[in-house]
Specification:
Length: about 210
Amino acid sequence: MTLSVFVAFWAVSILFVITPGADWAYAISAGLRGRVVIPAVGGLLSGHLLATVIVAAGVGTLVTNHPFALSVLTVAGAGYLLWLGINLLARPATPHADGIQVSSSSMRWALKGLCVSGLNPKVFLLFLALLPQFADATAAWPVPIQMIALGLIHTVSCGVIYLLVGFGSQVVLKARPAAARGVSRFSGVTMIIIAAVLLSEQIQGW
């Protein structure tokens, strides 16, 4: 693959990365909780890597050819986002710098991050739509390796943006507890809206 292909793919994928969505909302909520931004973002990136491997292995095509499997993924992802959004509305986060139970909660935030991105069919379909378009069957690299390389580029971009969003929310809102609660509730509403859209699209498809 040539450098121009990588640059072209990055230019397209970064547009999706900088568009606020469930991942942004989760990164913001992690930033407001304190020292869990890195594990939370790590979990989000794990979901993107999982989607990359699935598409590169060809399993993605099989899933999209079986609507029921994709429906299950969509409903599961929407249900999880709905649960997270409701929890954020019920218990809005406020910034705090204490380290109490940080180590024990890090794994939970990482796992939740994995579920947020890994169960999001939009992430899966994004890779399924983009990666094959930039793969070249005549290139020296095997197509699956090309897709993994492109997926890594997208994941690195996600990591940079999500870390900026997570730590930025903590810095900006650290001295503004009321604003932090408002942003936390907004993140919860965002997750609920995304979940509702996913479910409505699924119902219309039935």
